[in-house]
Amino acid sequence: MILNTVIYGNVTFLDIIVAVIILLVALFIAKAISIYLRRFLKEKVAKEHLEIIIKVVFYIIIIIAVLAILPTIGVRLSGLLVAGGIAGLAVGFASQSIIGNLISGIFLIIERPIKIGNSVNIDGIAGIVEDIRIISTTIRTFDGLYVRVPNQKVFTADITNFVANVARRFEYVVGVRYSDDADKALEIIKSIIEEHPLALQNPAPQVFVDNLGDSSVNIIVRIWAPATEWLEVKTELLWKIKKALETGGIEIPFPQRVVWFANELRSRDIETGLPGPDSP
Amino acid sequence: MGGIMFGYYDIPFRIIEKGISLSIDKEGENLLYRREYGVEKVEKILLGSNGKILINPIEPVTKPKELTPYLLIELDRTLVVEPKGTKKIFVTFPIEIGVFIRKGEDSTILDTFTLMKQKFTLYGDPRSGFICRYFTSSVYSVIPSVDRVHEGVIELNITNTTTGWIEVTKAMFNAYGMKIYYSDNLVSMRANMKVKSSQIAENDFDDSPLEVEMKKSVELFSTRKLSITTTKSIMELGI
Q1: If DSSP codes are grouped into helix, strand and coil, which group holds residue A147?
Q2: How far apart, in Å, are the Cα atoms of B73 and each of A104, A201, B28, B141, B158?
Q3: pLDDT tens for residues A189-199?
Q4: CB-side exposure of B114: number of CA atoms within 13 Å?
Q5: pLDDT tens-place string over residues B37-52
Q6: A168 touches B: beta carbon within 8 Å
Q7: Predicted ipTM?
Q8: Taking CA atoms, which of A53, A225, A278, B41 is between 20 and 30 Å from A112?
Q9: Among residues B19, B1, B6, which one has the least CA distance to residue B214?
Q10: Mutate which of A202, A222, A237 to test chain B, going by most B C-beta atoms within 10 A?
């Protein structure tokens, strides 16, 4: 039969057909997975990153298929493995960090704990995400510096994303004098918050006397604001509260300590020049 | 009533009403747009010599900052809607005014302002919720009499598709779907709320006036030529 015809070595015509079929099936599977990935990740991953991921997955499937058919067409992998193993070891050591960053980059792109434009803190580096590439992420710090962070570091670091949620809360502690009317202070602070458009109506702000401090009655003020605006609201409101309290006759006291002198009377006597009861 | 009249104005023009000063004057070859209200002052130089000015109500979500397309109206009294019923109520919404310059068919926004207090709120939770422009409204069974430069009227048709009585305390609307109409004494929208469960409702707008001979507003979002995915608002975190 023609199928059993030996073409070279032990490889028959049937082996060649099987190899071609495996390759075609692999191509079909790779194409199908690419289409599925494109649909699945379309909304989750940026277009340029999506193309890279699809290509990587496509070529990995093809390489696996090629390795699978090599013995069928008479290529012994054992020899290749020895040579490839040594070369692979060398290349592996050399590209360890690159591969690590690449894989971390793919997971970052899929998981998306951060997005371009987000305000974040990654391992102590705080700023705005400028770009998320396949190997590294670039951040513009709040003082305008360009910082490139390898994706492996981003992936393993603690990430704080300041704008992942649409709203966030901030807090002040406002101290008023013991002689001031704390109820009036609460009313003034509440009215200032109510007037500010970006201090959210809901969740409602909390304003209450928290503790009786050494020098002041301490009022806690908790306000929710849109995550993109919270810093502006926080800085604006604190000063407005301070000015409104002063206008209402309520002062924020300095730390103070009352000191009692044991020999107060003697001191007074020295000042007045009169002999005290202890004087000879 | 009174206040700023909505509609088209020829250049130059000047309006001084209820603390608002709004004008376009010739300045050499060009035009100078000025608007003052309280401490807010806006000045723009228009590098052109003619055109028309259109002043009309726009989607009430742009001031003080355009943070969200959603307007949340909290009702001052809870509504309880009968099963499988459709009921009509009227609520009010805050007016924002847009000043457009028009030449030929092209309208471009020059300025927006409002005479109403502005406040934002969170609908839902911080993780999955939405920032919304906030407004509290009374519930009316007939069209209320309101000052049209301050408040407009929404005819809200509430359909309860469930088999139980449903409580409604608020309604969230998407500005991308708003269809605003105005006349000399009223600004209006017509909206529908389809209640699907005690927590879920779907809101949208009808493109029709509340009274005859009302004019259609040029909406801000429609002049932007954006590709809009939805004009509905889905309330999934409570109604």
Answers
A1: strand
A2: 44, 12, 46, 16, 14
A3: 999 999 999 99
A4: 21
A5: 888 899 999 887 778 8
A6: yes
A7: 0.87
A8: A225
A9: B6
A10: A202
